[in-house]
Amino acid sequence: MSAATTTAGTAAGGRAPAAPSGIRFDNVSVAYGENVVLDSFDLTVEPGEVMALLGPSGSGKTTALRAVAGFVRPCAGRVLIGGRDVTGLPPHRRGIGMVVQQYALFPHLRVEDNVAFGLKARRGRTASRAETAARVAEALEMTGMAAYARRHPRELSGGQQQRVAIARALAIRPGVLLLDEPLSALDTRLRSGMLAELARLHRDLPDVSVLYVTHDQVEALTLADRIAVMDRARLRDCGTPQDLYRRPRTEFTASFVGNANLLPVTAGPDGTADFAGTRLTVTPAEGAAPGASATLCVRPHLVGLGDGPNTLHGRVTEVQWRGATHRVYADVAGHRVMADLRELRTTPEHGSDITLHFAAEDAVLLPAGAGSTDDE
Ligand SMILES: Nc1ncnc2c1ncn2[C@@H]1O[C@H](COP(=O)(O)OP(=O)(O)O)[C@@H](O)[C@H]1O
Ligand SMILES: [Mg+2]
């Protein structure tokens, strides 16, 4: 494994590769009393894959993660790691490393002892002192914290503390790494630096499967091989970032992954749709038969100024200057349409007429209400 070349102190002949693991949720449900907070959850994370669990607060992301870790017990279904059913196993026997939002370091222990803690805590697997020291050095090296081994957590910044928490998770050489909003306690600038760090770390550990919980679409789009979109205890969508962005299958995904115009339309024949009396050419959806109500998803940055294949005439209601773009809000027959326009010489005036267009391939038809109201 490539990490062996970048780490020091592996006297025992280099870093043993983690067994390729992968995670599988097999129809997992979790309930607190009457309250089902994870509902028939089915998801497979391939060995070495980074899967983001993306959803609003309270949608069940942490619960799903804790079900893998073994801290909550499903009322139905199974959790498999590396093909093995671990549903009945205690957390320390699952071969997972976990990092949570608030670092959770022991304040009275030095960095190196914090990192060693996970190793010592694993009952029945007592590593020798030399082995422990080598693993701690390796984990601190990987996270860029080797120079801080003797410090206490209070002597570290938030970002450094989170690196130590990651080192602690890696020290056990987990096959599966669980990260629960690991960057949310950091300020914006630190966060983007840590995002790049996490991406590098995963390149160094290509066999480790990662489940990354976040409510931040930028983190999910940046880091994940695939994104699982959650809402109200359910999996709503799953795909590569590009897939979900370009071809969302539900309104929920369209609005949660990136910005979207969601226009109420009536599906027409042959890749057409009627919006406010205008016939548009669109990318058709399954389940939107001619005559049916549907929603048209168009990304604001794919809306252009002037005439085009699909032309809308409206009136400017608001303009926000955003440096590289102008975000223009237009009223088109009573509906709000957003356009992120580049390289405008002059800022459109409030109340002025505006003509906008978009290409058929950038206009994705969705069955109305898909994914947002199906269980209410
Ligand atoms: N220990 C608990 N007891 C009762 N309800 C809980 C418990 N943990 C979480 N919940 C509830 O489960 C739902 C999902 O929570 P959680 O998985 O933490 O969501 P997320 O991580 O997406 O914000 C929430 O409604 C939350 O209030
Ligand atoms: Mg959570």
Report low-confidence residues grouped into runs of 5 or more: 1-15, 371-376
What separation lies between the terminal Cα atoms?
Answer: 48 Å
Sheet of most strands:
6 strands, mixed
Q: If helices are DSSP runs of H or I spanning 4 or more residues, what is the number of helices?
A: 9
Task: Assess the beta-strand content as a share of residues.
Answer: 25-35%
* Rg (CA only): 24 Å
Structural class call reads: alpha+beta
The portion of residues assigned to helices is 10-25%
Number of separate strands: 20
Give the integer mean of the pLDDT values: 89
Order of strands side by side in the largest beta sheet? 6-7-8-3-9-10
Categorize the overall geometry: elongated
The small-molecule ligands in this entry are: adenosine-5'-diphosphate, magnesium ion
- The ordered string of helix (H) and strand (E) elements is HEEEHEEEHHHEHEHEEHHEEEEEEEEEE
Walkthrough of the structure:
It is a single chain. The chain is 23% helix and 33% strand. It is α+β, with helices and mostly antiparallel strands and 376 residues long. A 6-stranded mixed beta sheet has the order 6-7-8-3-9-10, sandwiched between helices. Helix 3 crosses helix 4 (129-142), helix 3 packs parallel to helix 5 and helix 4 crosses helix 5 (158-171). It is elongated, with a radius of gyration of 24 Å. Magnesium ion (MG) binds at residues 61-62. Magnesium ion is lined by residues 61-62.
